[in-house]
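Sample pair:
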Amino acid sequence: MTAVIALVGRPNVGKSTFFNRLTRTREALVADFPGLTRDRHYGTAQFEGRQYLVVDTGGFEPEEREGLVAAMAAQTRLAITEADAVCFLVDAKEGLSAQDAEIAEELRRSGKPIYLVVNKMDAKGAVSELPEFHRLGLGMPYTISAAHGHGVEPLLEAIFSDLPTPEAEAAEAAGKGPRIAMLGRPNVGKSTLVNAMLGEKRVLVFDEPGTTRDSIRIPYERQGKPYVMIDTAGMRRRARVGEGLEKLSVLKTLSALREADVVLLVLDARLGIAEQDAHLVGVAVELGRPIVVVVNKWDGMNPEQRKAVKQELERRLDFIKYAPIYTISALHGTGVGDLYKSIDQLWIDSRRHFSTGELNRALADVIETHQPPMVGGRRIKLRYCHQGGENPITLVFHGNQLTRLPGTYKRYLESAFRRALHLEAVPLRLVFRQGENPYDPQPKKGKH
């Protein structure tokens, strides 16, 4: 099994900075705000050729509290349960606190291998504060600077020397499978849907809009197939996006869309489709990502309301008519399992490869059915086609006067090739290049 290492500690001790250091990314939000990381955040890392998962957690406050703080503590406990090893981070600059002692006591009860990590040792005078951390009773502390990387390698050497060697098959399988991005406005039920698809409460669900501030990556398996779930922060309208956390969350959502193989656009049936929903879809379309429209909270609507929602979907999202639409109840799990049929098919279709011969036979049939129009007394010529890429599948057309090809005929080409290639539900990008046919045995002389 691939090792899982959890990063635990009170707020603002540098867990997210350490996460970024281990994963060599900027995946975790880092800013000077206590409690910034509210959820478990998964990332893939490697050490000496061994792949492992790192789990970044929210600030741990083990004493009984209410609301969001208590939910954050529950998420941290789940991360500890999942982990093979726990890095308990403390702050060298601030020294030992009563909260550190409480966390240490809970970690001892977990029975997990605990590695006490004294962070921010780049600060002057921090070494003099080190002896007090021995009072936690967790063995010799490991001193690091997450910001600068000092001391990280010896810590990882100690952790992996205590862990069993992972199986090669598990290491190769890690990270494979469709990457599913959960997209939508705040409070439409994205995290509830993630939990329903995973079958457990792995993403923090709290009755506050925008509870998910970061993009959370969760590798998992379903019926023996690997997947990676990406639960993104809800993107707000630009005018409502202020400095700090909200702006960072928008960047994380865009990053998640670039990474995703399939996008689930989650809509609240009771709220209808807002301009922001159409904007989110537009971003995904620009990136060429396959989209599944998921209408949540469908169970509480009467027939007239359902009819109105369907009509609004046809009107507001007509530019993605190819996208499959599902009506579900994430809270009760109704219809959630059906989503995987489209996810799996979109994953396969978006990676299909077509030979140039196959595409040109389709092109000949398309032109025979409906020729390109005449422009200036000359007919536009589509001479040949080849595939220029996948995910999204890109078809490159060569010919004459293609810059004058009208939009209506381009839409006809897209529709006809969808039918011919059986690509009914994935984005299809058409590129038109005007020039000579490289397969022509006697090309015309170019200009000198």
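The longest strand covers residues 381-389.
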